[in-house]
Every structure is written in C-alpha cells, then in structure tokens.
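Sequence, please.
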C-alpha cells in the first residue's frame, strides 16, 4: 500500500527531474516529510530554517505546487515547520507555516495600513511593498528605459523634486506595479528614515469608505499626510469617486507642498482619464509623465530567460526565440506560457521542444480569445480612438464615433464568437442588420487601406 511518505518521495522524484543535481541537493535533500492530514489535505514537511522556507517559496513554489497536485491531487496544501535536522533525527524548534497557494508577498499586499502607523518610527513603518520586485529583476529594454531611469533617480535622490509627482502609465501587464515597488524598495534601502507606502487605488477607496463610516476621516487624512513617499497604483480607478477624489486632492496638495514624493500608475495618460476634475488632472501632470510600453522582442527574450532560470527549466534557445518573437503581449502572458511549459514537463516528464512551444502558444491564444468580452474590446477601442463609452454606445453620427463603433463590432465578432444580435444589444441596443453593416464597412476599409489594416492589428495587440 502506498503511504503519504511514499507519495512525497514521488513528488521529490518529479522535482529532481526538472533541476540539476546541485539545486536539488541544496534545497530539497535537507527536507524531511512530517505528516499528511487526509481531512484537510495538508502535507507537512520539516525545513532547517525560516530562510530555507522563504527561498523555496520564492524560487521553487510553482515547481513544488505542480508536483504536489500531480501526486496528491488538487487542493492539496503545504505546511512548513522549522526544525533542527541532523541525519534522520528531527528536533522541532518552532512553527513556521504557510499555505503554498498564498505566498507571503501576496498576503502583505492584501493587508491595509492602519492609521495608528502615523506615530510609528520609520524603521518600524510597514510600507506594504513587494520586496521581491526590485530593480535587479526589472529588466531594462527600449520600452521601459526612460521610466526605469527616472524611477532610479527618484529612489536615489529623493531631495530632488524634478520628478514630483511621477505619473507612470501604460497597458496592463507591462510592469508598472513592479517598477513602483522597485522604486519604493530601493528608496527604503538607501534612505531608511523615509516613510514609504504602497497602496492600490482600490484599497485607498475602501479605507476611506471605512474611515467615513467609523467617523475617522481626520485620522485617515492625518495618516496619509505623514508619508514621505506615497505610491498609488491604478489611479484610473478613482474615476467617478467624487468624495474619494476630493480627499485624495487635499492629501496630494499637502504632500506636494511639503516636498514629499508622490508616485502614481495608470493604464492611460491623464488626458484620457474620465470623470475627474481638471484641477486633479492638472496636478497629475505637474511633474513627470513616463510611459511604459509593451516589451519589444529583445526584452521579451530577456524576460523569458530570467523566468526559465528561476523555475529551473531546461529550455533550448530556439524555443525561447520562438516564444519571444510570436507572443507579442505583456509580461503576465510570458509568465503564463513558462508556467504551462513547466506544468507539462513535470506531469508528463517530457522535454520542451519547438513543437511543444507552438502548441502552448496556440492554446494560449485560444484561451485569450475565449475569455475576451465585448466590454473588454469596447474599452480598448475607446482608449485607442479617445472617445467615451457614452459616445460609442450613443446615437451621434459623427464620423469618429461611427468608426469606433463599427471597429468595436468588427473586433467583437472576430474575437468573442458572439452573435451579431448579442453584439448589437451590448453596443447600444442596435439591430442585427446594423452590426453586419458595420462589420462589412470595416472589412472593406481594411481591404482597401493597408494603413487602416495595420491600425486594426495594433488595436488587437492591446486587447
């Protein structure tokens, strides 16, 4: 009969097959199996130190995860316990546990800063930064050279106010969150006396709402006005939130007037942000606007090499070149492809070659198209043509609105598989015949005008 310990040994065999001997000997041979709880589906293991656990979580989490699920089944959890391990004798020293599916960095990012931090010294101040996102692993390329350089300058020389505020914008998945965390991490390392805080716009909104409900608005404002460097991610989510924007406006003014650094990210430049007062948009443009573009082929290649090495994969150079050339999307898409390769190689014990890479990319494209919605396409088209949703959905027959409307219909029909009737209903309650007419117009224009055909391809890349 196969015991849980035998199953764990099988996990180690799968892991060993994907790593070189030195990696396996250093990080997996010292591990000892402790127990398996059939009710909670928890595999418990001993590791020799807290650092050991953190290194495994940071560098081999995905590989361990896949091996566990392959052998023990889905929904298996992994529990670490620190212990002194000498030969086969284990002496428990303390409990250090973590669910494999929830790494420390993610838990930290989901927590909310409390207003009582305002009286805490900078050395004890919780910044809520992801310390794994640094300049060392934020690879430089043509698409991000300027924002990266500006970010380093902000972190190294906080007394200079040339880039205050720093407004970083670009499409989803191009590295905005990584870059602002890298700025924050470096700033804290070089200037530990600074109180640095990372917060998403959504979390800021939630905190403000809670503060109002509990009559602690003044405490909320006082806390944020005490920050030396405030990093707000995805400020486009403030659109339409009048009371939140009003409060952020006063916090912004206080920080800027007192020479404190403000860093913001958005998926679009200030000029394209809707439902925000002009006075707020003007302040966004006071300092430096830095655009992060989607990575070019060379940067995609370099990112893939780093991801492959981190996951301990052995992938031929021709496969990396193929993926870099054919997957012209964001960094998250690249990570997804690497994880798919890792999963396949662990489960099937197969080497990764060019044929397999083609299959993975094909499946990735199918999945992306299958999950794309009409609303996603409308959002991209509106951003490209600089029109509002109301203008695209409305009845106005201005040429620029009609063009955007018909492009959205054409792309929705091509990428979602929805019927013309459903597309028409979503895009302004229009008829089946109106949608077909719009699609035919776009197809005709693409056939006759190469520049327009290229423009449509550019829009598709942004979806």
């Amino acid at each position: 009969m196969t015991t849980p310990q035998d199953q764990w040994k099988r996990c180690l065999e799968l892991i060993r097959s994907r790593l070189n001997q030195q990696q396996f000997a250093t990080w997996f041979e010292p591990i000892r199996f402790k127990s398996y709880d059939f009710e909670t589906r928890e595999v418990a293991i001993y590791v020799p130190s807290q650092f050991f656990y953190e290194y495994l979580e940071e560098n081999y989490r995905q590989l361990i995860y896949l091996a566990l699920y392959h052998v023990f089944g889905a929904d298996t959890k992994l529990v670490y316990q620190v212990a002194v391990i000498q030969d086969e004798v284990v002496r428990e020293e303390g409990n250090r546990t973590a669910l494999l599916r929830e790494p420390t960095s993610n838990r930290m990012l989901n927590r909310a800063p409390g207003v009582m931090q305002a009286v805490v010294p900078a050395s004890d101040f919780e910044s809520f930064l992801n310390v794994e996102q640094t300049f060392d692993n934020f690879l430089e390329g043509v698409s991000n050279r300027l924002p990266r350089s500006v970010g380093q300058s902000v972190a190294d020389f906080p007394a200079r106010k040339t880039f205050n505020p720093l407004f970083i914008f670009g499409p989803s998945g191009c590295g905005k969150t990584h870059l602002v965390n890298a700025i924050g991490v470096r700033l804290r390392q070089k200037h530990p006396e600074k109180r640095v805080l990372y917060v998403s716009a959504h979390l800021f909104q939630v905190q403000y709402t809670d503060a109002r409900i509990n009559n602690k608005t003044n405490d909320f404002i006082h806390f944020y006005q005490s920050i030396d460097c405030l990093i707000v991610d995805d400020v486009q989510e403030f659109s339409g939130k009048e009371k939140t924007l009003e409060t952020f406006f006063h916090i912004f003014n206080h920080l800027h007037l007192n020479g404190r650094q403000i860093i913001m990210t958005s998926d679009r430049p200030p000029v394209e942000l809707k439902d925000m007062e002009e006075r707020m948009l003007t302040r966004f443009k006071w300092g430096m606007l830095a655009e992060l573009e989607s990575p070019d082929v060379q940067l995609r290649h370099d990112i893939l090499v780093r991801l492959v090495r981190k996951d301990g994969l052995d992938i031929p150079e021709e496969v990396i070149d193929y993926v870099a050339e054919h997957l012209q999307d964001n960094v998250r898409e690249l990570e997804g492809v690497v994880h798919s390769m890792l999963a396949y190689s662990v489960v099937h014990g197969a080497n990764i070659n060019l044929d397999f890479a083609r299959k993975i990319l094909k499946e990735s494209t199918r999945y992306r198209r299958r999950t794309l919605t009409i609303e996603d396409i409308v959002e991209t088209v509106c951003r490209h043509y600089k029109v509002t949703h109301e203008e695209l959905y409305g009845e106005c027959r201005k040429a620029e609105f009609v063009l955007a409307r018909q492009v959205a219909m054409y792309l929705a029909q091509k990428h979602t598989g929805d019927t013309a009737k459903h597309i028409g209903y979503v895009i302004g309650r229009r008829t089946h015949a109106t949608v077909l007419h719009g699609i035919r117009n776009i197809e005709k224009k693409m056939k006759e005008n190469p520049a327009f055909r290229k423009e449509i391809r550019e829009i598709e890349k942004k979806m």
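Strands lie at 32-37, 42-47, 77-86, 89-92, 166-169, 196-200, 229-233, 261-266, 288-291.
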